[in-house]
Amino acid sequence: MTATSVRGIDHIGVTVPDLETATLFLTRAFGAVVLYDTLRRHDGPRGGPDVERRLGVPAGTQQLAIRMLALPGEGPAVEGPGIELFEFQGPRREPPVLPCDFGWQHVALYADDLDAAVRDCVAAGATLLAGPRPLPGPEAGERNRFAYLRTPWGSTLELLTYPDPQPWERAATRHRARPAPAAARPPAATTDAAESWPTDPDRPGPARSPARVPAAAAAGPWPADPDRPASLS
């Protein structure tokens, strides 16, 4: 077996038409946590030859805002993979790829309660493409199901659950990574969005909305940010 230092997915980068709208969807649909802003809107835009060469984008492309969020994990101090949101302006802004297009074509998230997760996503603004259905073939099981949705900005999202044994596992030498059951996670800390939402003077977040804040982040030092409320500094 080839030696590797790769341990798993750290984060997924997603380009969206509006950073605040996408943030609101992810926090409402999945309980995602806002970690920090790499590029705040009023500090940008960021562009030029270095950005164009580093990202492989056309001349004239500018980064307007960048934000890192974390999906729920095994507890408030152990978050899941990150989702890094990007907002750009420039000469090329293609619509999101469909599953038939080349490239990274969808993100799949595991849910303990698939029906509830679908309802949360739809309530947050996603579009359900078809109702939940059984996982097929090697992934089949009595309670193993999946569903595809579209995010508000048009990217494809899969929600799935497979609590029952799958046929492929009978002869497998290793297993797929699966998030810890919700019952095993410590209770998540909560706070008002008025205290936790990163303030963007050009696109302010909602006045009040439930949001989780990692205990480690709330207790420890926060990167210098003049927009960060003093109560959490």
Helix and strand element order: EHEEHEEEHEEEEEHEH
Instruction: Assess the beta-strand content as a share of residues.
Output: 15-25%
Helix content: 10-25%
Q: Give me the number of helical elements.
A: 5
Question: What's the overall average pLDDT, rounded?
Answer: 80
Evaluate the radius of gyration.
19 Å
User: How far apart lie the N and C ends?
Assistant: 47 Å
Low-confidence regions: 188-199, 204-233
Q: How many strand units?
A: 12
Instruction: Sum up the overall morphology in one term.
Output: globular
User: How would you sum up the major sheet?
Assistant: 5 strands, mixed
Alpha-beta content class: alpha+beta
Write a concise keyword list for the protein shown above.
5 helices, disordered C terminus, 5-stranded mixed beta sheet, alpha+beta, 233 residues
Q: Summarize this, please?
A:
This protein is α+β, with helices and mostly antiparallel strands.
Describe this structure in words.
- The structure is a single chain.
- The chain has 233 residues and is an alpha+beta fold.
- 17% of the residues lie in helices and 24% in strands.
- The protein is built from five helices and twelve strands.
- It has helices at residues 19-30, 49-55, 114-124, 193-196, 215-219, and strands at residues 11-15, 33-39, 46-47, 62-70, 82-89, 107-110, 127-128, 133-134, 145-150, 156-161, 190-192, 210-212.
- Strands 1, 2, 3, 4 and 5 form a five-stranded mixed β-sheet that branches.
- A hairpin with a 5-residue loop joins β9 (145-150) and β10 (156-161).
